[in-house]
Amino acid sequence: MSTLNKKTVEDIDVRGKKVLVRCDFNVKMEDGVITSDKRIVASLPTIQYLLDQGAKLILCSHLGRPKGEFDPAFSMAPVAKRLSELLGREVILAKDVVGEDAVAKAAALKEGEVLLLENVRFEKGETKNDPELSKKFAALADVYVNDAFGSAHRAHSSTTGVADYLPSAVGYLIQKEIEFIGGALENPKRPLVAILGGAKVSDKIGVINNLIDKCDTVIIGGGMAYTFFKAMGNEVGTSLLDKDNIENAKGMIQKARAKGVNFLLPVDNIIATEYAPDATHMRIYSDSIPDGWMGLDIGPVTAELYAKSIQNAGTVIWNGPMGVSEWENFANGTIAVAKGIAESGAISIIGGGDSAAAIKKLGFADKMSHISTGGGASLEFLEGKELPGIACIDEK
Ligand code: AMP
């Protein structure tokens, strides 16, 4: 299956039709108040396009983790209110998900009207991808559009099952993720360089494995580098070590070598006496860390080396910081890589919370081609796994 030939909203005729759109309205809330409406704002292009095309819109999403029944704490009411303000038109809120009220309100919808269903996770069948629930979703509408990339790695009724019963397409948010991440994996502008950092090898072993198959260069930084050091027979002091993955790390190094892929590990490190923002620290030119010291960042020579490898890249994929970037003393490696990407002119794809946060904090966000909207989904995508919420969509 290629992800690149999925139907998008522009490939389907929606005039006068009822379109069920699975959005990601899983907004941050505190005491019933939305603290960030970023995800609602991100959904607007698809919603606005469908309205301009004369669709009757039925929107749905999950919000938090209710336990399969109505719970006012997880109601979509605040989302309906905020969405209505952003769209400048009424958003009708159904009292249930696929019950009597939703059915009646969906049936009465006119062109240009917007109905928001209650939290899809109020239905027990949602997370079980229950076909009976999927059929009820499908019965509300004529067409299904999935635009919830953050939930695309979950096979639930509203993200996947419903597509068995309706013609389907992806919205603009998923379309962009497919174009950038799918494009980088299936048909990249070369050289393709992946930079992987962060804490745990176990979280990213599948990603590293898949990227060695696709990339010209794989660059490793962050806490996970020390498991690779250990795999090469070096000492790592008190650095992060993923003991269960030392053999896997060894296997990755051998695989990269066999495939002729450049596999870069830090050549110098910033080491500290303890895991603290103001810990005593120094630089060492070595891939062995002395007893009682821990590696908390890549060193300046490594940062320069990595930035140089990025300079000539056609495409860069970055996931995970190069050190403890939350702390000023150990943020330089991450900053150098972010700068290197911003100045490279390469197609740049940023996934993962910490790398995206570093990019935004440095003011480089608008220099990146794509900052992924889904942490878990983007990692599974990079791992080469099929995302059920995309796989279920009709091909062109
Ligand atoms: P991840 O969620 O796997 O991308 O990991 C991000 C976390 O890794 C951040 O909170 C960083 O502080 C942490 N991290 C990065 N490098 C190191 C390191 N050398 N030692 C300990 N933690 C690190």
Q: What's the gist of this structure?
A:
With 396 residues, this protein is α/β, with parallel strands linked by helices. It folds into 2 domains: 166 residues, Rossmann fold (3-Layer(aba) Sandwich), CATH 3.40.50.1260; 195 residues, 3-Layer(aba) Sandwich (Rossmann fold). It contains 13 helices and 17 strands.
Q: What structural keywords apply?
A:
six-stranded parallel sheet; alpha/beta; about 400 residues; Rossmann fold; binds adenosine monophosphate; single chain; 2 domains
Task: Write structural notes for this entry.
With 396 residues, the chain is α/β, with parallel strands linked by helices. The chain folds into 2 domains: 9-174, 3-Layer(aba) Sandwich (Rossmann fold), CATH 3.40.50.1260; 188-382, Rossmann fold, CATH 3.40.50.1260. 35% of the residues lie in helices and 17% in strands. It contains 13 helices and 17 strands. The chain has helices at residues 38-52, 77-87, 100-107, 131-140, 172-186, 201-214, 225-231, 246-259, 300-311, 332-344, 353-361, 375-382, 388-391, and strands at residues 18-22, 28-30, 33-36, 56-60, 91-93, 114-116, 143-146, 168-170, 192-196, 217-220, 262-264, 269-272, 281-284, 294-298, 315-319, 347-351, 370-371. The protein has a 6-stranded parallel beta sheet, with helices on both faces. A 6-stranded parallel beta sheet has the order 11-10-9-15-16-17, sandwiched between helices. A 3-stranded antiparallel beta sheet has the order 13-12-14. Helix 1 crosses helix 2 (77-87), helix 6 runs parallel beside helix 8 (246-259) and helix 7 packs across helix 8 (246-259). It is elongated, with a radius of gyration of 23 Å. The model has no long low-confidence stretch (mean pLDDT 95). It binds adenosine monophosphate. Adenosine monophosphate is lined by residues 198-200, 203, 222-223, 240, 295-296, 320-321, 323-324, 326, 352, 354.
